[in-house]
Structure formats: structure tokens, C-alpha cells
């Protein structure tokens, strides 16, 4: 089963294309109206539009024209749209790279003076009041606004929102919308069902965990939070699950938010909203998300390449759907490998140049079958040297911590126990 989420909601699935400019554009001028606007609308304006995270809008010609040369440089050098997976490893439904044909068109347009062209500009995709997943069936928001100061460090904030659901619902899509995306570095959504929570005291001294389906280096359950159902970081797109799959939201659940705010020089009042689109009927496959986390590490001072490994063991036959690596300013690279019970190793994802400013979830084009007894091994490499321009203090020994100046070796893993 192909993951069609990106295609369904125009969130950036891109197929490969020839580097040749097609015949219809080879002998005529390239214009914004006829050629460039469709590319921008398909691949760029999910971020480059009013109210989104990008610094400028590219919806109209008037908005795009002043940035023409900068746009050309970014796309020709493959810095935009941002995509960091090694193309030689794995295939991903949300691969937002431009085709060679699209890069050629943009470069020619700028080289020919970035003309507008005749006729009306194409209508951009429907905005749905800003919701990228379409009109939600349920919208929840912080019960009280939270004031983010202009400067300083903001400790992690925790909020709870009752769903008031009277029956179980199946989540087909979920979108997290902070009031100002610039001030939310990352945000995690948990759904605590009715009933007792797993106490932290039940975790073994070595912090290893072994729930029913997976064991190993997992994030200890957060008291009072429940299962993780969604998260965003800088650059993360909404979750849209393939038809026939969904996440369960139990009746009476309370949504718990775990928010890392950052200051931007301007005070901001946040009242984050969360939109849910529900499946019309129960899915064939239930999706679940676990958090691979290796908290036991020390990155030595002035070290350019320090590897930290975390592993989870699957106790049942399963399928992997997405991987979302997360680290902070010293994060250098990531790699994920699946090791089957016979010891055969299969590379799943490599991110050779991890970018703290784009916390991407990588959605497999087709889910990866996992035999019971297999191990998912994640290797994160950190650069704590003076050569790392983002390094806040190369003289420090760095450990796990919540703030950006600390580090994390953390990855969200979406799986199912029933293969397609």
C-alpha cells in the first residue's frame, strides 16, 4: 500500500522527472502565470504563504518577483525545498524535492527576467481557513492563552484539553497550529484515555522498557499523558494517514500537550489549536507511535563526531510507516537500520546532514515489513567541536536535557502490528 498522504492534501509528494525542459516550454518564454506559479503552488506555498513559517509568501507574482534571484539560487543548489534524506537509501511519500524539470523551469524564468506573463494568475489550492488537512471534524485549543516573553528561556509547558468524546474515534489526519509558529520549537500531542496511567516508578533502574509489542530504548511514559499521537517541530508537516489506517482516540480521552517555546524578541500570546479529521469507518490497520530515546550519553567537549546508538526490539510481526529523528544544535547526522532475526541489516533512512531548523518526519513510500525478533537501530552523530557554528559551548560535556543548549537522541517511530 502506498502512502498517499502527501498527494491527497498537496503536502509535497514529488515524483522523479526528466531534466529535459518539455517541448511546450523549450521554444517559448517561461512565465510566472503559465509555468512557475503551478510549481510554487504545489511545492512551496504550504510554508510560503501568509501565516505560515516561511519568511515570505510566494502565492502571487507580486509577492514572488522581488525574491526571484534568491529563489533560483536556493532551488538550483537544492537547499529549497528542504529535504535531507540520502536519496540512495529508501523511498518516501513526502519527498518534497523538486524534479530536475521544475528546477530548469525556475532557473530559465529568472534568467529571462522573471516575466509575469499574460492572463489571470492561477488560483492557489484552497486554504480551508489555514488548515492544510482540509476542514477538521474537531478542533481543540488551549483552554487559556499562554504568554511567551520576548526574551529568555521558557521552561517546557504542559497543558491538558478534554475531548469530551462519547465514543472512540479514528483519526485520519491531525494538524497542530500554534498561534505563531516561530515561537514553538516543538510540540507533542498525547491522548490519555480514561483509567490509570503507567507510573514512572514502574520503570527499571536501567531505564529499559518492554511494553507488549516493543522493548528497548524507549522514552519512559510521561505520568498523566498517555500515548503520543502527533508532534511537530520546525518544518514538520501535518499527519495525514493513508486510507485504511488511522490512530485511535478513545472516548473520554484528554489531550495532553508538551510544548517547547522559544523566544523571538517579541512577546507572543499562544493559544495553539489542534484539528482532527476522523475516518468514516474503523480502519483495517491501527497506527501507533513510540518514542525511541537514548538518554544515557555524554558528548565530550570539542568532539567533532560522537555517535549515540538506540535500539528497539519488535516482539511481534509489524510494519514501519514513519521515522522522525530529533536532536538539537549539535545534531550532525542520523541513520536507521533494520536488523532481522537472522542478523541481516537493511538501511532504512540516512540523514547525512541533519538540520536543527527542519525537524522532518520521513514517511515511507510503502510500509516496511518487520519480523518478530527484529531490531530497529538508530545512530545519531553529534558535533560538539568549535567548527560547529551552531554549537553554544564546545567546552561543555553535553548530556540529555530539555533546552536547546542541551542535547537529545530521540526519534518518533510510527508502526502497526498488522501489515497491509
Features:
disordered N terminus, 11% helix, Jelly Rolls, five-stranded antiparallel beta sheet, 21 strands, mainly beta, single chain, 420 residues
Question: Any overview of this molecule?
Answer:
With 420 residues, this protein is mainly beta. The protein folds into three domains: 5-125, no CATH class; 130-286, Jelly Rolls (Sandwich); 290-416, Jelly Rolls (Sandwich). It has six helices and 21 strands. The strands form five sheets. Strands 1, 4, 8, 9, 12 and 13 form a six-stranded mixed beta sheet that branches. Strands 6-15-20-17-18 form a five-stranded antiparallel beta sheet, with no helix packed on it. A hairpin with a 5-residue loop joins strand 17 (331-339) and strand 18 (345-351). Helix 3 (32-43) packs across helix 6 and helix 5 (68-76) packs antiparallel against helix 6 (100-111). It is globular, with a radius of gyration of 22 Å. The model is unreliable at 1-22 and 198-207 (pLDDT under 50).
Amino acid at each position: 500500500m502506498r502512502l498517499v498522504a502527501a498527494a491527497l492534501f498537496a503536502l509535497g509528494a514529488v515524483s522523479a522527472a526528466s531534466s529535459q525542459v518539455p517541448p511546450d516550454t523549450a521554444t517559448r518564454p517561461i512565465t510566472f502565470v503559465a509555468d512557475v506559479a503551478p510549481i510554487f503552488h504545489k511545492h512551496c506555498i504550504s510554508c510560503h504563504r501568509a501565516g505560515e513559517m516561511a519568511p515570505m509568501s510566494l502565492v502571487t507574482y507580486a509577492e514572488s518577483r522581488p525574491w526571484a534571484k534568491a529563489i533560483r539560487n536556493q532551488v538550483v543548489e537544492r537547499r529549497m525545498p528542504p529535504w535531507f534524506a540520502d536519496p540512495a537509501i529508501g523511498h518516501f511519500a513526502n519527498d518534497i524535492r523538486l524534479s530536475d524539470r521544475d528546477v530548469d523551469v525556475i532557473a530559465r524564468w529568472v534568467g529571462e527576467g522573471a516575466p509575469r506573463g499574460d492572463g489571470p494568475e492561477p488560483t492557489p489550492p484552497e486554504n480551508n481557513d489555514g488548515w492544510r488537512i482540509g476542514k477538521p471534524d474537531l478542533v481543540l485549543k488551549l483552554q487559556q492563552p499562554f504568554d511567551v516573553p520576548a526574551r529568555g528561556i521558557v521552561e517546557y509547558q504542559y497543558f491538558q484539553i478534554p475531548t469530551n468524546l462519547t465514543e472512540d474515534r479514528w483519526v485520519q489526519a491531525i494538524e497542530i497550529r500554534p498561534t505563531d509558529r516561530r515561537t514553538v520549537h516543538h510540540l507533542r500531542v498525547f491522548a490519555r484515555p480514561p483509567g490509570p496511567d503507567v507510573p514512572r516508578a514502574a520503570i527499571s533502574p536501567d531505564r529499559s522498557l518492554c511494553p507488549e509489542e516493543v522493548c528497548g530504548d524507549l522514552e519512559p511514559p510521561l505520568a498523566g499523558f498517555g500515548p503520543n499521537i502527533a508532534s511537530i517541530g520546525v518544518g514538520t508537516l501535518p499527519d495525514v494517514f493513508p486510507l485504511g489506517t488511522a490512530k485511535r482516540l478513545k472516548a473520554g480521552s484528554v489531550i495532553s500537550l508538551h510544548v517547547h517555546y522559544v523566544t523571538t524578541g517579541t512577546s507572543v500570546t499562544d493559544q495553539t489549536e489542534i484539528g482532527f479529521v476522523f475516518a468514516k469507518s474503523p480502519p483495517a490497520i491501527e497506527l501507533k507511535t513510540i518514542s525511541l530515546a537514548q538518554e544515557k550519553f555524554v558528548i565530550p567537549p570539542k568532539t567533532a563526531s560522537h555517535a549515540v546508538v538506540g535500539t528497539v526490539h519488535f516482539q511481534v510481526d509489524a510494519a514501519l510507516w514513519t521515522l522522525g529523528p530529533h536532536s538539537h544544535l549539535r545534531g550532525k547526522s542520523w541513520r536507521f537500520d533494520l536488523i532481522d532475526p537472522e542478523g541481516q541489516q537493511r538501511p532504512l533512512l540516512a540523514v547525512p546532514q541533519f538540520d536543527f531548523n527542519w525537524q522532518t518526519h520521513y514517511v515511507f513510500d510503502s510500509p516496511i515489513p518487520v519480523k518478530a525478533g527484529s531490531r530497529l537501530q538508530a545512530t545519531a552523530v553529534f558535533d560538539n567541536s568549535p567548527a560547529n557554528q551552531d554549537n553554544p559551548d564546545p567546552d561543555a560535556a553535553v548530556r540529555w536535557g530539555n533546552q536547546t543548549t542541551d542535547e537529545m537522541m530521540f526519534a518518533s517511530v510510527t508502526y502497526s502490528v498488522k501489515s497491509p
